[in-house]
Amino acid sequence: MRRGITIGRTGKADRTRLKIGLTSPIKDQVSLRMKRTFFLLISVVISIPLFGQSILLVPDRIFDGENIHEGWGVVVEGRRISAVGPVSELKGDSRIDLPGSTLLPGFIEGHSHFLLHPYNETSWNDQVLKESRAERVARGTVHARETLWAGFTTVRDLGSEGAGYADVGLKIAIQKGVIPGPRMLVAGKAIVATGSYGPAGFDPDFEVPLGAEEADGVDDLIRVTRDQIGNGADLIKVYADYRWGPNGEAMPTFSIEELTLMSQTAASSGRPVVAHAGTAEGMRRAVLGGVETIEHGDGGTREVFKLMAERGVVFYPTLAAVESISSYSGWKKGVDPEPARITTKKKVMKVAIEEGVLIGMGGDVGVFSHGKNALEMELMVEYGMSPLQVLRSTTSLNAKTFHISDRVGSLKTGLTADLVAVMGKPDLDIKAVWNVGFVMKDGAVFRNDF
Ligand SMILES: [Zn+2]
């Protein structure tokens, strides 16, 4: 037997038709919402894969991480995918029908913060300064469950924002089956240049907890990078710029030499460095300093995007965070004039696309509600990408970028059985990704509304 949450489970044999107490097929969003509420009330029901037994999953069509195949299905055996192809050529000991759906690789969120919740609920400063570690972790467990429920079976969590290594603990709790959630790649504390990060603006006589760890110069950066790795960071996140200019504007922080040093130190342990960067100069330094991904990139110029394309650095534009923050300050989309920051972001996306930069899916979720990760996918289309490109970004491209494509991100024989079924055709209308009806992680059914 494998790990699994078993509350409410009544028998182990009939894994294929295990339900969450509701039996009708998906009809609309409303019924999904009702089921979600019901799910939250009764906690979680997960079936447990039976070794030696194969399950044939039969949707209308599949997206294999690259392309759509009509009439194809997937066979799962234990934790792994054992076959992918036309349903007529596939066999399984049991069968799960997913009528009207497209079956895809489990979605991969490229930029989350499980230790944060939306800033319109509580400001970032107050979360870092006033919420106890216990409260933040308790919230994190809920965020993990909501994320998996939405079809995201893997997340790259980019910084605990003052919660130490609580992200490492969450990751381990999920791995051990203590709580349901996606597999996690975690950054831990993240690294900032001294004096650049927040919370800021307090009487200097008081020591105020920071949202990340300060380090500078050769010895310090090497030590802190290694220390974060030793404490469980899967990757190092640095802030290549931050809002510490004379008028509170974003300005570069680390030198190219410092960034290179962190990249080399992390690379020695087989880990990548990724950078928060919003200014063209911060982005340029980060790319030349060897980072693998750039987060945000609001001030990206054609020159910088050319450099990123040349070096294969992947861009995470975090569109959903920008739109959410604008809405928190009162902007009503479709009613009010577009804020300058969004107009700029649209131009930046256009240039990045024109220059052939690889664009990953990662919304900076935590700034907005966990489980609403699909907002980023919707906006990526709105800002100029095709739905098919966005599906690739969220599955195979994210997997490749995070060095996990040998395990997840595609529907291929031998890969981990992380799967999500959505109603409709998300390659034609990206909004379909909101309508999740089935989630399997690691061969275990976490959600089945069919
Ligand atoms: Zn972030």
Briefly summarize what is shown.
With 450 residues, the chain is of the alpha/beta class. The protein has helices at 29-42, 124-130, 133-149, 166-175, 217-230, 256-267, 280-288, 302-311, 319-328, 340-354, 374-382, 387-401; strands at 54-63, 68-70, 72-77, 80-86, 94-105, 107-112, 152-157, 183-186, 191-192, 213-214, 236-239, 241-243, 250-252, 273-277, 293-296, 314-316, 419-423, 436-441, 444-448.
| Largest pleated sheet | 8 strands, mixed
Write down the Rg. 22 Å
Number of strands: 19
What multimeric state do the chains show? Answer: single chain
Overall domain count: 2
CATH secondary-structure class of the largest domain: Alpha Beta
Number of helices: 12
CATH superfamily of the largest domain: Metal-dependent hydrolases
**Helix percentage:** 25-40%
Average of pLDDT: 92
Low-pLDDT runs of 5+ residues are: 1-30, 37-45
Cofactors, ions and other ligands in the entry = zinc ion
CATH architecture label name of the largest domain = Alpha-Beta Barrel
Instruction: Please indicate the percent range of residues in DSSP E strands (runs of 2 or more).
Output: 15-25%
Query: Which topology of the largest domain does CATH recognise?
Result: TIM Barrel
End-to-end CA span: 25 Å
The structure class reads alpha/beta
Task: Give the key terms.
binds zinc ion; disordered N terminus; 450 residues; TIM Barrel; eight-stranded mixed β-sheet
Describe this structure in words.
With 450 residues, the chain is an alpha/beta fold. The protein has two domains: 15-106 and 409-448, Urease, subunit C, domain 1; 108-401, Metal-dependent hydrolases (TIM Barrel, Alpha-Beta Barrel). Helix content is 32%, strand content 21%. It has helices at residues 29-42, 124-130, 133-149, 166-175, 217-230, 256-267, 280-288, 302-311, 319-328, 340-354, 374-382, 387-401, and strands at 54-63, 68-70, 72-77, 80-86, 94-105, 107-112, 152-157, 183-186, 191-192, 213-214, 236-239, 241-243, 250-252, 273-277, 293-296, 314-316, 419-423, 436-441, 444-448. The strands form five sheets. Strands 1, 2, 3, 4, 5, 17, 18 and 19 form an eight-stranded mixed sheet that branches. A four-stranded parallel sheet has the order 11-14-15-16. A three-stranded parallel sheet has the order 6-7-8. Helix 8 (302-311) links the parallel strand 15 (293-296) and strand 16 (314-316). Helix 5 runs parallel beside helix 6 and helix 7 runs parallel beside helix 8 (302-311). The model is unreliable at 1-30 and 37-45 (pLDDT under 50). Zinc ion binds next to loops.
